[in-house]
Write a structure and sequence with these properties.
By secondary structure, the chain is of the alpha/beta class. It has helices at 13-22, 38-46, 60-65, 81-90, 105-118, 132-142, 196-199, 201-213, and strands at residues 4-9, 28-34, 55-57, 71-74, 94-97, 122-124, 149-157, 166-167, 187-188, 217-224, 241-247, 252-258, 269-275, 279-280. It has a 6-stranded parallel sheet, with helices on both faces.
C-alpha cells in the first residue's frame, strides 16, 4: 500500500504536534503545509524531515488544488473550520479535522452530504471517546451492570494560561495578558468570540457521555456567566458555561465548561454515570 500523502492546514502548536506524530506513524507522508502566517510555515518546516520536498502554501484554495496530497489534516481554530473541511472534501481530499467539526448546522450537513456524495473519509480527531476507559464504561452500560442510567455528567474546566487569547499575526507569536502592555502589536484571537462550551464540552466530554449511553439529546437548557471574563477582563469571553440536557432514553445530563480560571493543570476532564444498580466516575 502506498503512503497517504497528507497536507497539514494550520501550523500552530496543535499543528506542530500532528506533524511530529504523523512522522512516527508508518503509512503517512507529509507533502504540503498551509498557514496564512508565513513565520509559522518556516517553524513547521523545521519539524519535518526532508522538508525540501514539502510544498508550502499561504492560500487555502491553492493548497486544496495541489495534486500532490491525498488528505488534509485540518488543525485550524476558526469559525469556518466546518466550511474548510467541506471545501477539502469537495476538492477530492480525505479529511481529518480537529474539534469541533463545525460551528453551524449548515456546515455540519455540508460535510455529511459531501462524504455521502464523494465516498471520501472524514474523521473527527482529538476525541476522548477513543480512550480505553470510555469503551469499558460503554460495555458496563450496554450489559446493564449499572442498571438504568438516570443521570450522567461531564466537565472540562481547563487552565492553559492566557497566551492563546492574544497574538501578533505578523509573526505568529502569542502573548499572555501580562505581556500586553509591552506588546501593542498583539491582537485578540478568535477564541474571544467562540462559545466556551462548544469547543470544550461539545468536542470532548459530551462525545464521551453519548458514546457510553448510546443515546441522543432531545432537550437542552443552558446558562453562562457574563462576558468579559471576571478572572481576566481583557478576555471578552465568559468564564463558565453549563448545560442541562435530557436524552431520548430519559437520562438527565449536566455539562460544565470553562477555560479562564486558574486551577491545577492536568485534571481537566471528569465524568460520572449514575444508574439504578451502581455508578462509575
Amino acid at each position: 500500500m502506498d503512503d497517504v500523502r497528507i497536507g497539514i492546514a494550520g501550523l500552530g502548536h496543535r499543528g506542530l504536534h500532528w506533524i511530529r506524530l504523523l512522522q512516527e506513524i508508518p503509512g503517512y507522508r507529509i507533502t504540503a503545509v498551509y498557514d496564512w502566517i508565513e513565520p509559522l510555515q518556516e517553524r513547521a518546516l523545521e519539524h519535518i524531515g526532508c522538508h525540501s520536498d514539502v510544498r508550502v502554501f499561504s492560500d487555502y484554495e491553492d493548497f486544496l488544488t495541489y495534486d500532490g496530497m491525498d488528505a488534509v489534516g485540518l488543525c485550524v481554530r476558526r469559525k469556518e473550520v466546518g466550511e474548510m473541511a467541506a471545501r477539502a472534501l469537495e476538492a477530492g481530499k480525505h479529511v481529518n479535522s480537529v474539534v469541533p467539526a463545525a460551528y453551524t448546522m449548515a456546515d455540519c450537513w455540508r460535510i455529511v452530504a459531501d462524504v455521502e456524495r464523494t465516498g471520501l473519509v472524514y474523521s473527527l480527531a482529538e476525541q476522548t471517546r477513543f480512550w480505553g476507559v470510555v469503551e469499558g464504561w460503554r460495555q458496563l452500560v450496554a450489559e446493564g451492570r449499572l442498571g438504568k442510567i438516570t443521570y450522567a455528567e461531564g466537565q472540562y474546566v481547563g487552565w492553559y494560561g492566557t497566551h492563546q487569547y492574544f497574538q501578533d499575526f505578523k509573526t505568529g507569536r502569542q502573548y499572555p495578558v501580562e505581556a500586553l502592555s509591552d506588546h501593542p502589536e498583539a491582537e485578540p484571537t478568535v477564541l474571544h468570540s467562540l462559545p466556551v462550551i462548544v469547543g470544550g464540552i461539545g468536542s470532548h466530554d459530551m462525545d464521551v457521555v453519548l458514546t457510553v449511553l448510546d443515546d441522543r439529546v432531545v432537550e437542552v437548557v443552558g446558562m453562562s456567566t457574563k462576558a468579559p471574563s471576571y478572572a481576566w477582563p481583557e478576555i471578552s469571553r465568559p468564564d463558565i458555561q453549563v448545560a442541562l440536557m435530557k436524552t431520548e432514553k430519559d437520562t438527565v445530563i449536566r455539562m460544565l465548561c470553562g477555560f479562564t480560571q486558574p486551577r491545577p493543570h492536568g485534571d481537566h476532564h471528569w465524568w460520572q454515570f449514575i444508574g439504578t444498580k451502581g455508578s462509575v466516575e
